[in-house]
Amino acid sequence: MIKILFVCLGNICRSPTAEGVFMALVEREGLADKISADSAGVGSWHVGNPPDRRSQVAALKRGIDLSGQRARQAKPQDFYDFDYVIAMDSENHRDLSGICPAGEKHRLHMFMEFAPHIGHGDVPDPYFDGDDGFDVVLDLIEAASAGLLADIRAKHL
Ligand code: 4NP
Hints:
CATH topology: Rossmann fold
Strand order of the largest sheet: 2-1-3-4
Oligomer: single chain
Bound molecules: 4-nitrophenyl phosphate
CATH class: Alpha Beta
Order of helices and strands: EHEHHEHEH
């Protein structure tokens, strides 16, 4: 099993959306027996909470149900448990670098590196934005999910 962990700041907007979108793609491609995904937050404020209602609404418009997810905090052990630890933005990447055990940095990625043609370094934090921000997040996540799956196919399947 190839295991993916998506990480943002709160684990209630971007990373649950990435988990939902990516796993819907994996299931569509018939690869759910080979690839699994989870998500976590760098921060602990929202631990135990479901995804932000605005993220749930935006994802449901594209047929993706995030309601069963619950937030948790990222931890050093995640770098042993997951093949890819994927940061949504450069701040998340820096914070994850700080808890990454020695010798495991090769597992840490920026999500948008898997969609270089989009020309975005970060999946921007939509938490303090209007509803439009959540649709932008979904567009970026859909593009990067396709690129991530291509990377996994090329390297692992
Ligand atoms: P996320 O968005 O990192 O995409 O889950 C945020 C959620 C909550 C907060 C910030 C960002 N917050 O400050 O509580």
